[in-house]
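Hi, here's the filled form for the chain we discussed.

Project: internal
Contact: R.S.
Residues: 300
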Amino acid sequence: MTFSATDAAFEGFRVVRRKPMVLLWWAAFYLVSFFLIFMVAAGPIAGLMAAATDLENMGPGASPEDFEPLMMAYASILPLVVPLGILVGAVLSAAIARSVLEPGKSAFGYLRIGMDEVRVAVVSLVLAILLWIAGAISFGIAAVVGGSLTTADVPAGWLIMIVLFLAAAAFMIWLSVRLSLAVPITVAEKKFAFFDSFKVTGGRMWSLIGMAVIAFVMTMVVGILTSIIFFPITMGLGAAVDWESLEGMNAMGILQAVGPMVFVAIVLQAISSSLSAAVMYAPFSAAYRDLKGTGTPELA
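And the returned structure, exactly as it came back:
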């Protein structure tokens, strides 16, 4: 099977066309995940909101010490939200990869919780840390060297610094592309594929960049179109709320008044996010499938 960047870029649309119900499964998963995270972190979130309100009431005269409760409240949320966020991302990423690589296993919208998801979570976390370190080092070197040249009034120092930053950006793009098939490989080959992507992406740099650019543009288009479609619905619900009556009302009263509107907005956002995720990430699984010559994009 030959690899076509253009064909692969539209794999997300083909997934949804073959199995329209996956969109509802993924949207439901988004909703359940959102409410689970909210329930787990409800206390710290309330503390964060209270700290933010107190800081706002202090006005522009707030001192650096006044920001400490807000920072502490924010820090208390991260240990709860980050692990759950990683798990949610791994489950959805594995489901999207599975919808392309194993299209016949469509039960529950390809959603599973098993070793595939564990491996995807570990691989995604490790590679995210690796990319962060690589970015910090490459841009740090560019900043230090470029800053030294401009401070020393070296001729064309600013130009050299710009070139260094462009080189750092090019390096990060290259590294990201070379690692971009790690999740599909992890799901397809049932192993921790930290660096296996290098073997598959060799010689396909520009094709994969082109595919990623097309997928990104299509994701933006999907976001814009769904916003246009859903906007009248949310506006209609908002118009039904008596906003003036909310003044002086406690948090529970406000939640009861705007709750239906917020719930519908969250549901619509979940549908939009599910479609966007399919459009953005399915192409990478299609690229792996086509480059390895495994599977078939037409299996219903």
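Let me know if anything looks off before we file it.
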